[in-house]
Write a structure and sequence with these properties.
Helix 3 packs parallel to helix 5. The longest helix is centred in the middle third of the chain and has 26 residues. The chain is of the alpha/beta class. It is about 45% helix and about 20% strand.
């Protein structure tokens, strides 16, 4: 039998994440595991000049971070009500790299990550954080897809 003591659930605050959280909560309760919820903020990169007024990337990043803290606080409230042990953090950088680095540093036993199921042009344009995590993670990864409606 596998022992999962620490379960990592990356969040992008999407509806897909909510489903991955449900799975991971069930695992955490039945295995008495600790949940680790992380949200990764990618640095804002704006074009030098496209005729738009100057906008401070520092201000944008501060607003993004403040919004992420508010949303993470809501998730923390849910987890407190569920009675599971948890850690919740905001990380900065490339999402797939940060998720993998965090899982190594924290000795995560399982990553439960949502996928949007994008294909074609959307997949090409946005890439797939989940796919990169699946390829590079040193622990098992459970990929949870949004059910068809």
């Amino acid at each position: 039998m596998f022992s999962f003591n620490k379960i990592l659930v990356p969040t992008d605050f999407s509806e897909c994440f909510e489903i991955a959280l449900k799975y991971s909560l069930e695992f955490a309760k039945s295995l008495e595991a600790e949940l680790h919820i992380v949200h990764v903020i990618q640095p804002a990169i704006l074009p030098a000049d496209l005729g738009y007024p100057q906008v401070s990337t520092v201000d944008i990043e501060k607003e993004i971070e403040a919004n992420a803290h508010r949303r993470l606080d809501n998730i923390k409230g849910t987890l407190r009500n569920e009675g599971v042990n948890f850690e919740a953090k905001i990380l900065f950088g490339k999402p797939s790299d940060q998720i993998i680095d965090y899982s190594r540093k924290e000795n995560i036993d399982l990553i439960c990550i949502s996928t949007h199921g994008r294909s074609g042009f959307q997949h090409l344009l946005f890439g797939s954080t989940t796919e990169k995590v699946l390829r590079k993670a040193v622990c098992p990864v459970l990929s949870v897809r949004m059910p068809d409606k």
